[in-house]
């Protein structure tokens, strides 16, 4: 696929408040792209880590990943996401799996409306920790990074009934900006933290928040 020059710049700026604290402790790796439409997911469609059961080891039910290999992005595929988002996804960016400091895994999948970086990109980052306590600490770090002293940099909207804890995070300067390019959801389920991002350089749509929640709930 063609290089995407704009989206990495936007994501770098928007993720600064919560992501810098997290990513500074991780091993670096290079991402590569997959241009073929992914096959239909073979993962069970029933919810992973159902609230009626013990949910601490959610990651055991995810597609198996191998450090330094391409991410297996089969949990969500185009056929599942397109009806929710109302667009046709043309390709996917697949990153290498990185080992976390606690021995867990960090990996991500990006679903693109275009191969140029324009239009909609839905990004799912998985932080599969070895323990629930490590996942809780990661979420706490993101919350703490939203402000410095009395200065608020990210506005967080708590979400009930989503995972074990969840919140939308928006840069304060973008809250009332109709051209805000990114809608983000942080959600923890047991020992898994997910960062969902819907990016559109033309400005996010009012439906993006609901669409992220609907997409998440396809499997959780």
Explain this structure.
The protein has 220 residues and is α+β, with helices and mostly antiparallel strands. The protein has one domain. Helix content is 21%, strand content 28%. It contains 5 helices and 11 strands; from the N terminus they run ααβαββββαββββββα. The protein has helices at 6-14, 16-23, 78-85, 132-144, 208-216, and strands spanning 31-34, 91-95, 98-99, 105-112, 120-128, 147-148, 151-152, 154-158, 165-171, 182-189, 192-200. Strands 1, 2, 3, 4, 5, 8, 9, 10 and 11 form a 9-stranded antiparallel β-sheet that branches. The protein has a two-stranded antiparallel ribbon with strand order 6-7. β6 and β7 form a beta hairpin. α2 crosses α4 (132-144) and α3 packs antiparallel against α5 (208-216). The chain is globular and about 40 Å long.
Class derived from helix and strand content: alpha+beta
Unreliable stretches (pLDDT < 50, length at least 5) are 5-17, 19-45
Number of β-strand runs: 11
**Strand portion:** 25-35%
> Which percent bin holds the helix content?
10-25%
Multimerization status: single chain
Q: How many separate helices?
A: 5
Radius of gyration: 16 Å
Mean pLDDT: 84
Domain module tally: 1
